Amino acid sequence: MSRAITASELKLEFINTIRSLCEHWATVDDLAAIDRVEGVATGILSLLNGVNASMCGFDIVARPHHSDKEYSIERGENWVEDGTVINSNMSYMLNSTNRQKS
Question: Which domain holds residue 52?
């Protein structure tokens, strides 16, 4: 009988998928180190976005400290709202030909 995957099982699958990405990109000899590192990062971002066929997508949700907003306002800086989701289209943004400044 089927059942929901537990958090522990999902976490292990997630970590093993990242481990596989690292092992794959570590064996690519014909690329510069930065390209291999970006390959791992793109793979992780694709995994989070749900593009990886073996897993569902995940949200990257900002959880700032409760005092961060007040601290930022006191310094005249912008702040991050709790619950802000940032994982849309991130693997594309990482591509070296599409570098964007924050």
Answer: 7-98
